[in-house]
Amino acid sequence: MRKRKTPTSRAKASRQRPPAAAAMMKRSVPAGDLSLHLERMPRFPLHQLSAPPLPAPSRFQRKLLEVSEGYDALSSVDDGGEDVAVDKDCILSQDFFCTPDYITPEIPNNLNPNKENIACPKSPEKSIRNKRHRQVFSSCILPSTNVQLHEEDAELKFDEFGSDDVGEKKQRYVSQSAVALRYRVMPPPCIRNPYLIENSSNALDVFGDRIAKMAGFSPSIGGDGISRYRTDFHEIEQIGSGNFSHVFKALKRIDGCLYAVKHSIKQFHNDMERKYALREVQALAALGYHANIVGYHTSWFENDKLYIQMELCDHSLSKGHIPRSGDVLEVLYQMATALNFMHDRGIAHMDVKPENIYVKHGVYKLGDFGCAILTDKSLPIEEGDSRYMPQEILNDKYEHLDKVDIFSLGAAIYELVKGSPLPESGPLFCNLREGKIPLLPGYSMQFQSVLKAMMDPDPLKRPSAREIMENPIFERVKKTTSRKE
Ligand SMILES: Nc1ncnc2c1ncn2[C@@H]1O[C@H](COP(=O)(O)OP(=O)(O)OP(=O)(O)O)[C@@H](O)[C@H]1O
Ligand SMILES: [Mg+2]
């Protein structure tokens, strides 16, 4: 499967779900699918909360209510042989909004996790009126979804239990106690990061059966809920935008440091779109730290958009930020270092171009991993900007994906040296793909022959990133680079 980025292939990619993917979604609901979790959850009418008064249900809570119609799993529980209508309320924990508070308790040993309907505890004696009472209430696990509802020590209030009618009191007891009850919903199962080559059996054991292909697409926060972006960051200014994203300089409130926060322009409405969007952060996360790759901190979905918190760089190599001629060698060397690091880990960038090379304190960093793929072609291929794509990609040949990056880097460096954007078509476009690289006055023949080799029409004749790095023309640059790091 292949996607072409130009002019806006990523947007197209999200609009047109691949047929195989559509079929897959029809056949079965993936384990991480939120709607499935919700359908299997016992749900309780939030609107019947009596005390204390709660705010109007959020959009997400309202959705819960909608899907809960007709579902009455816990509306009747066995309480000493009597059926008692249970008017439960719930306070959805932060976990449910994918902002875990890290204190989700383990399920207690003495409770049967496979039982959805748990006996209601005995009603309190009249004498405990006005007393704060801690009592284990209920617990259940939904085995097929890995969604667990946990009990919490609940503070029960019985102030308004003045009635002598035992039946009514039982009913109200459950209702009032539920006000204070918190249902904890575990985050969705862990997602397998396809970019991690060390997916050894050891690593997988850590997750056990909690790994799911479509997990991680947990409920969006935002809308009329709380914005994680607004809560955690103070936005300072927009620093960039691409075909798919806006990027902002933002101060993180908790650590007082500046970051780049990128968020998608388009909303992702289904798991397949989110899965594609997540590739960028999965690739960044799998790669980990490298001085010449933009640092990745965290990511989350909000309002169906993907937010990515990254290291803040000064600017990219575009729009008036062309490096001086002496610095072009440094760009080439440092980008070859980044590509070598990636290719060693089986990942190809597929969108190397000046706009995606950032500078921070004189160090060049490769960014925008939205097209990153595995060199073994085990992921659907998405091509980057066609101005930097070699001929074989335009001919739909994907044998040597690491060498696609080498061509693109050569084309990007050529553009930086020329100081004018590469054409999208025409004679120069064709010449560059046929190995006819116009001479670059003022640049050494060694440098020009490296560029020519990088843009060779035959991918096998292009040097690897490591071979580029080892070229003697970089001797001086290597010293400067190591001083900056
Ligand atoms: N970490 C960062 N630090 C500073 N500026 C950044 C950072 N990330 C992105 N930018 C700026 O934002 C611009 C757009 O970012 P990016 O290329 O990631 O978005 P995109 O929509 O994926 O782009 P494209 O159209 O290339 O696919 C970049 O060209 C750059 O100028
Ligand atoms: Mg970009």
Proportion in helices: 25-40%
Strand content: 15-25%
The parts where pLDDT drops under 50 for at least 5 residues are 7-52, 67-120, 124-172, 179-184
The coarse overall form would be globular
The distinct bound ligands, ions and cofactors come out as: adenosine-5'-triphosphate, magnesium ion
Quick overview:
Belongs to the protein kinase superfamily. Ser/Thr protein kinase family. GCN2 subfamily. One of its GO terms (molecular function) is metal ion binding. The chain is of the alpha+beta class and 485 residues long.
Task: Describe this protein's structure.
This protein has 485 residues and is α+β, with helices and mostly antiparallel strands. The chain contains 15 helices and 22 strands. The strands form eight sheets. The protein has a five-stranded antiparallel beta sheet with strand order 12-13-14-16-15. β12 and β13 (245-252) form a beta hairpin. α9 (325-344) runs antiparallel to α11 (401-418). It starts with a strand and ends with a helix. 38% of the residues are buried. The chain binds adenosine-5'-triphosphate (ATP) and magnesium ion (MG). Magnesium ion (MG) binds at residues 242, 355-356, 368. It is an enzyme of class 2 (transferase).
Helices, strands, pairings?
Layout: E1 2-3, H1 9-15, H2 19-27, H3 34-40, H4 59-67, E2 76-79, E3 82-85, E4 91-92, E5 133-135, E6 140-142, E7 147-150, E8 154-156, H5 166-179, E9 182-185, E10 190-191, H6 201-207, E11 211-212, H7 228-232, E12 233-241, E13 245-252, E14 258-264, H8 271-287, E15 296-302, E16 305-311, E17 315-316, H9 325-344, E18 347-348, E19 357-360, E20 363-366, E21 373-374, E22 381-382, H10 391-394, H11 401-418, H12 427-433, H13 445-454, H14 465-469, H15 475-484
Parallel strand pairs: 1-22, 4-9, 10-11
Antiparallel strand pairs: 2-3, 5-8, 6-7, 7-9, 12-13, 13-14, 14-16, 15-16, 17-19, 18-21, 19-20
Helix pairs in contact: 9-11, 9-15, 11-13
The structure holds adenosine-5'-triphosphate and magnesium ion.
Adenosine-5'-triphosphate binds at residues 239-245, 247, 260, 262, 294, 310-313, 316, 355-356, 358, 367-368, 370.
